[in-house]
Amino acid sequence: MGKKFHFVCQTCGEKIEGFQEWFANQQKCPKCGDSKIKAVYSTDKERLRELVEDCKKPDSLWHYFDFLPLNERKNIVSDGEGVSPIRRWDFLERFAKDKYGLNLEVHVNRNDYSPATGTFKDKGGTLAASVLKEQGIKEYVVVSTGNTANAFAQYLAKAGISATVFMPQDAVRENFVHIGSIGQRVYIVKGDYAYAKKVAAEYAKSNNILITLGNLDPLRLEAKKTTTFEIIRQLKKMPDVYIQAVSGGTAPLAVEKAFADFEGTGILGKMPRMLFAQGSYCDPQVVAWKKAQANNFPDGWEYDYPIFENPKTLVPTIATGNPGLFPLLGRLVKRTGGDYFSIKEELAVDMGRLIAYEKAVKVGPASAIGILGFFEALKHNAIKEGESVFINMGEGVRRSLSFVEELSYTIEEITSAQEATRFDREKYRDFVWKSFM
Ligand SMILES: Cc1ncc(COP(=O)(O)O)c(C=O)c1O
Ligand SMILES: [Zn+2]
């Protein structure tokens, strides 16, 4: 029997047998030294059709084991992640109808339900912990703005693997303490995300410890690829439009990987139009995109992007100031006929309130930016009559208590019953919608 999967170096085409060889070579191609590899599976691609036609709700993304880079099921470290419900949000559909006259289907991926840490980063967490366990690795370095850090720290803890986590100093405080509380090591690096990456890489190299490779790490990309499978399994079709708050770009690149893997099978349908949102105080990809667009995409436009050093942002979770993968992401947006939007970060609280009011769902600031991307897309006429929209909403509020405090607007202190007045929550409707009408 052939092996379940191998890697192919994207730069020189060298075949790499699996994680054992990959890790032994410090996650570099043994021939050319580059770190961009693609996982290739020997499983018959038609097997995916059976998996997505399965009507029973899977226990976790390990439903797609045949297309994940792990050899043996016994090494799975899972918490039921990766199969969060995709729900239609009627208030978004009503808004599109009332304000723009558009009949849309709007689907939101409720990754806030993810059992382990309440974000879509749990997908990478389960795969990383399982693979590291399979390879007998005991120590690992993670660098992240917060959500990946938490997911990896938690799943590695579950697998008995020590995680040393480096985070930029402006990361949400709850992110540090959640990791600290489960006994994984946290370093708050005095500097921005780019600097934290540099410090972490130096530490990993000098101590000869494996480290997260960033947005193209197969441990993250392969796991997130399953989002595409879940869309088909749950919606029975690929939506016309995909919206997300982007930082490094793992999730959209994982969508692209899924489409590349299953090209020609017809299982996934047509790649959606990619609409990306970035917070206004750290939006280098939007700046690069707008410039390229204004100049009619001149040769080399993908490589002409600004680097924001020490961005002062209200949403540090998605603040990648040096968008090294813009060449890939920008091309993806162009190829699918998509667009980029800069989102006024001050609106994150207003959006958080609106969602909480309309759905009784509390989302984190990065998710609010993603939903605001939908509003901005409508404003720019980027969604057409009759289309279906998928919003990949990344996080809940489990580690954004300070954000929830900002959302809250109904609390009063009293000393007697006479001070309390009759209540009708309808009276808040105009208030929560005021920024959006
Ligand atoms: C909640 C949330 N949304 C969006 C993103 C952006 O993810 P990416 O650009 O890597 O797909 C992140 C990543 O940090 C996140 O934590
Ligand atoms: Zn190579």
Element string (H = helix, E = strand): EEHEHEHEHEHEHEHEHHEHEHHEHHEHH
User: How far is the N terminus from the C terminus?
Assistant: 61 Å
Strand content: 5-15%
Class per helix and strand makeup: alpha/beta
* Shape designation: globular
User: Segments where pLDDT lies below 50 for 5+ residues?
Assistant: none
What is the name of the CATH class of the domain at 86-112 and 223-406?
Alpha Beta
CATH topology of the domain at 86-112 and 223-406: Rossmann fold
Strand order of the largest sheet: 4-5-13-10-11-12
Mean pLDDT: 96
Oligomeric state of shown chains: single chain
The count of DSSP E runs of length 2 or more, i.e. the number of strands, is 13
Q: Could you say which small molecules are bound to this protein?
A: pyridoxal-5'-phosphate, zinc ion
CATH architecture of the domain at 86-112 and 223-406: 3-Layer(aba) Sandwich
What does this molecule look like?
The chain has helices spanning 19-24, 47-53, 90-100, 122-134, 147-158, 173-181, 193-207, 218-224, 226-235, 250-261, 284-294, 326-335, 347-359, 365-379, 401-407, 429-433; strands at 5-9, 15-16, 37-41, 86-88, 105-109, 139-143, 162-168, 185-189, 210-211, 241-245, 273-279, 339-343, 388-391. The protein starts with a strand and ends with a helix. By secondary structure, it is α/β, with parallel strands linked by helices. Helix 6 (173-181) links the parallel strand 7 (162-168) and strand 8. The radius of gyration is 22 Å and the shape is globular.
